[in-house]
Amino acid sequence: MLQIVAEWLRTTDLPEPVPRESPTVDPRNLRSILAVVGPRRSGKTYYLYQLIRELLASGETSRTDILFVDFEDYRLQGFKPTDMDGLLSAFQQLAGRAPRFLFLDEIQHVPGWSRLLRTLHNRGQFVVIVSGSNSSLLGGEIATELRGRYREERMLPFSFREILKYRRLSLDKVTLHTSERGRLLGIFDQYLRFGGFPETLANPHELEKRKLLQTYFQTIFYRDILDRHRIKARYVLEPMMRQLLEDYAALFSVSTFAKHLASTGLPGSKRTIANYLQYLEEAFFVIANEKFAYSPRRRMMNPRKVYLIDPGFGLLGGAFTEKRGALLENAVAVELFRQQRRMFYFKERYECDFIVQEGTRATEAWQVCWEVNAKNERRELRGFLEAVETLKIPRGGILTYDQEETLKADGHRVRLIPVWKWLLGLHVERERLEIQS
Predict the structure, then answer these.
(1) Is 436's pLDDT higher than 50?
(2) What single DSSP character describes residue 410?
(3) 313 pLDDT more than 60
(4) 48, 133, 254, 355: which has the highest count of C-beta atoms within 10 A?
(5) How far apart are alpha carbons 206 and 16 in whole angstroms?
(6) E strands of 203-341, at which residues?
(7) CA 38 to CA 44: how far, in whole Å?
(8) Per-residue model confidence (pLDDT) at position 428
(9) Spatial CB neighbours of 402, under 8 Å, sequence gap ≥ 6
(10) pTM for this prediction
(11) CB of 323 within 8 A of CB of 314?
(12) Domain range summary for the chain, segments of one domain joined by +
């Protein structure tokens, strides 16, 4: 314990983070626990460093006011909640006083972490900021244990807007009408192909980017799923994850996958497969949307539409053809998830990719395709318009790679909006005019 605390106080350098677009947080004003959650390697630790640097820059706080603990440090393997007092005692011994700010990185590795946080918060001595790579920090466990004593921030890989800032491309109305537009589309293409994980952005070599993504995938597989849940049926999880890498932005049926396993001679119950899908959601590997229905039972009984948490993971699939439309749709799903919008897919006679619900009402409908042309226009429009008319939705459109125009169909005017422009929020000026009957 003493060595870990001493390293933090004297030898740990704080790297210069790339500022994220998360809401501004001043730890000095926090009255509740702040939980920063998201997938591994998405920048959570650097966001904690960013908060620490801002504290130190204020001039009101020094290193001896702050304790940063990385629970992925191998020396803390087996750390228990009862060990926390020893860690705080070691800090007091070396710093001469108790810390005011506790930054606890990857807290999910501590068994009983939610009770530990409740105890620390109840003492009233500390500002507590934690990070975690498991979505249980967003929901059931933490809500039950802390009962409103925390707030959360979702930290995903870089958004397209953040990538433009990272690449130092300024965005304004003039940019869209200069040669910089071509550079913007080039960066968008790179985002669709390699995603937004910070390390992949910083690495200029395609092969190294792929290796990094493979490493992230393996870490999720072994540490966040196999080890955390003590899974024995690896022969079920492996083909399931392979299928999701290849068939993202597509419906995943638990029953159909169980039949597929049986046809290959592998056992796998529907309950097991449903549990594994939940584990993959908890580990921030996939986003699984339900079918829109007012009945919870109907939503539960239908297949999920599954997306990868970062477009870059699509590189690891074994598909022989480029899934351009699926990549585009996946990028939309990730952005809606980032914004914490409640989203579903619509499927009755036809299908619409995204329904966004606010309160008890469906308020937006979005169809996604690479390009609307003579071959697919009728299919894309009828799914979109069926959703709009059935659910009385006031806003929406068809999102494409780079088409921007208005189509007329069945008494409606439907806007085609480039996905990159939608990701940047450049469509909102005319949002309520996107559908007119």
Answers:
(1) no
(2) T
(3) yes
(4) 133
(5) 25
(6) 250-252, 286-291, 304-308
(7) 7
(8) 61
(9) 185, 418, 420
(10) 0.90
(11) yes
(12) 2-155, 158-285+309-320
Q: CB of 346 within 8 A of CB of 383?
A: yes
Please state, in angstroms and rounded to a whole number, the distance separating the CA atoms of residues 34 and 137: 10
Cα separations in angstroms, 201 against 7, 17, 312: 29, 14, 11
Tokens encoding 182:
């071509």
Q: Which phi and psi (to 5°) does residue 326 adopt? A: -65, -40
Chain position carrying tokens 């937006």? 364
- Sequence letter at residue 182: G
Check whether domain 2-155 has CATH 3.30.390.10, yes or no: no
Burial of 265 (0-12, 13-18, 19+ CB in 10 A): exposed
CB atoms within 10 A of CB 406: 14
By the 8 A CB rule, do 252 and 285 touch? no
Q: Strands (DSSP E) along 93-177, which ranges?
A: 101-105, 127-132, 150-154
The C-alpha angle with vertex 381 and arms to 398 and 432, in degrees rounded to 5, equals 45
Asked whether the beta carbons of 299 and 288 are under 8 A apart, the reply is no
Radius of gyration of the chain measured on its C-alpha atoms: 23
pLDDT for 349-379, tens place per residue?
Answer: 999 999 999 999 999 999 999 999 999 999 9
CA distance linking residue 86 with residue 371, whole number of Å = 60
- Please give the Cα distance from 344 to 357 (Å, whole number): 8
Distances (CA, A) of 69 to 18, 108, 130, 366: 21, 13, 10, 43
Write out pLDDT tens, residues 37-80: 899 899 999 999 999 999 999 999 999 999 999 999 999 999 99
Binning the chain into helix, strand and coil, the percentages to the nearest 5 are 50, 20, 30
Residue pair 393/387 in contact (Cβ under 8 Å)? The answer is yes
**Position 216, amino acid:** Y
Is residue 310 a contact partner of residue 400, using CB atoms and an 8 Å limit? no
Q: Are strands 101-105 and 150-154 parallel, antiparallel or unpaired?
A: unpaired
* Residue 139: per-residue pLDDT: 55
Tell me phi and psi for residue 429, to 5 degrees.
Answer: -60, -30
Q: How far apart are CA 354 and CA 423, in angstroms?
A: 15
pLDDT for 330: 98
Per the model's pLDDT, the better-predicted residue between 307 and 171 turns out to be 307
Distance CA 5, CA 68 (A): 8
Rounded distance, CA 64 to CA 58, Å?
14
Candidates 158, 138, 156; CA nearest to 33 is 138
Residue tagged 């071509």 (tokens): 182
The 33-37 sheet, strands edge to edge: 66-70, 101-105, 127-132, 33-37, 150-154
